[in-house]
């Protein structure tokens, strides 16, 4: 997905529900049926996959990584992020 493709979702205070697929064959952000799926090639250990998700999601939203805050789901596939 190109940088800033999901920029319409990057409103301050917005909460984004994300479904993560770790150990995928490629890194990608997929928006379908109102849901956001993030595929990362990283393994889900020690927060590595979450860091990769933040990097990819921030890129797709066209914002800095520091503007994304993990609200819920640090160890889950289903995560909630807030845009600050």
Structure description:
By secondary structure, this protein is of the alpha+beta class. The chain has one domain (7-83): Conserved Hypothetical Protein Mth637, Chain: A. It contains 1 helix and 5 strands. It has one helix at 48-61, and strands at 15-21, 28-32, 35-39, 68-72, 78-83. Strands 2-3-1-5-4 form a 5-stranded mixed β-sheet, covered by helices on one side. A hairpin with a 2-residue loop joins strand 2 (28-32) and strand 3 (35-39). The longest helix is centred in the middle third of the chain and has 14 residues, at 48-61. The protein is globular, with a radius of gyration of 11 Å. The two termini are 22 Å apart.
Give the domain tally: 1
C-alpha termini separation: 22 Å
Tell me about the largest β-sheet.
Answer: 5 strands, mixed
Strand order of the largest sheet: 2-3-1-5-4
* Secondary-structure element order, N to C: EEEHEE
Oligomeric status: single chain
Average of the residue pLDDT scores: 95
| CATH class assignment | Alpha Beta
Query: Helix/strand/pairing class, anyone?
Result: alpha+beta
Number of helices: 1
Estimate the helix proportion, in percent: 10-25%
CATH homology-level superfamily: YggU-like
Q: Which term fits the overall shape? A: globular
